[in-house]
Design goal:
Number of strands: 5
Distance between the termini: 23 Å
Number of helices: 7
Radius of gyration: 16 Å
Shape: globular
Strand content: 15-25%
Strand order of the largest sheet: 2-1-3-4-5
Largest sheet: 5 strands, parallel
Order of helices and strands: EHEHHEHEHEHH
Length: 182
Amino acid sequence: MTTLGIILASTRPNRVGDSVLTWVRQAVPTDTTIDLIDLRELALPAYDGSTSPKKGLPKESQHAQAWGERITDLDALLILTPQYNASYPGQLKTAIDYLYEEWEKLPTLLVGYGWGEAADVLPLLEKLMRRLKANVVGSIGLGSGPDLEEDGTLHMAEEKTAALRGLVARLLNPTRTERTDA
C-alpha cells in the first residue's frame, strides 16, 4: 500500500487549509494510506542542529530524528500551502530545512492557495524542493475569490478538481523518468 504524506503548512488559527485539505483528500484513492502532517501539531523549533543537514551526519535531536524518519517512510508527498505575503509560511521552511537526503527523489505535488492562485508561492516552493532533489511532479493553485473564500468555503470548478485528480494519479504513479530525473 502507498503512503502519501500531506503537509498542512498553515498554523494560523483562522486557516482555510482545512477546507482545502478536505478537497485534496477526495482526490486521493481510497487504497492510499495518508499521513497527515499538520505543522501546527508538529511544532518543530527553529533549526537547532550544530551542522547542516546536507552533510549527512546523524541527527542530533529526537525531534529531528523523528521528523526524518517520518518523511523517509513516505512513498509520496503533497505539500498544501497558503501564500502569505507572496511566499510560504516560515513553519514550512523550517520543516523543509531540517532535512536534506530525505527529500531526494521523493515524488512531490504542490497545492497552493491564495491571491492569484498562489502564483508567487508555487514557483518558490518548486525551486526549493527541486534544489533538494525532490521529484516535483506538478503543482496546482487555488485562488482567493474564484475557488475559495476567506471563511474556507470552496467553489471548485470541475476542471480544477479533474486537474487535481490527474496530478494525484501522477504523484502516486510517477513514470520511471520522473523517478530518476529529480
